Amino acid sequence: MHPSPTLTPSRRQFALSGLMLGASALTGTHGALAADTPLAAPAQATGPIVLHGVSPRLTMHAVDTFHGSAATGLRIDFSRFDGETYVPIRSFVVNANGRADEPLLIDDSYRSGRYEMLLHVDEYFAAKGARLPRPAFLSKVPVRLQIVNTAERIHLPIQFGPWSYTYSRGS
Questions:
Q1: In terms of pTM, does the model score above 0.90?
Q2: For the chain, where are the E strands, in sequence order?
């Protein structure tokens, strides 16, 4: 059964009236999108992240987005840049929570400089038995960062899959 022709125009008029009312509220003198309304600045920390009783440190957390779980068993080589090349500090395997068992840098080892975490994602997915094309699109993924202020605590959340990865500075 088709709607009667007299109902269709009134539905359209109702919808158009609602759109016009919403548009006038947004562009009016008191509307949220008025031209003279300043845009809010992005939220930024005003100082270092300080946790009471916790010294500044570098920590990480790896999540496997392909399997939707912590990257348990991922091998990572951690290095420091000496001005010419990255010099290995240590290698570790990510634990069941997706983290290193201890902070990567803490106390006297927490110094300013450039660092790299090399994630062996090809080995990780092979060990997991992931059915992926060969050769792998990603093999070794470098995560590079710079520590400037050693009073700040830095946490690196890392997400990766067979075709992409992302990381960010956390606290």
A1: no
A2: 57-64, 69-70, 75-81, 86-93, 105-106, 113-120, 140-147, 154-160, 165-167
Task: Count the domains in the chain.
Answer: 1
H or E stretch including 170? none
Specify the amino acid at residue 123.
E
- pLDDT tens-digit series, residues 91-145: 999 999 999 999 999 999 999 999 999 999 999 999 998 888 788 888 999 999 9
CATH number at residue 139: 2.60.40.180
Helix (H, G, I), strand (E, B) or coil at 26: helix
The pLDDT value recorded for residue 13 is: 66
Q: Give the domain range for residue 112.
A: 57-167
Would you call 124 exposed, middle or buried from its count of C-beta atoms within 10 A (0-12, 13-18, 19+)? buried
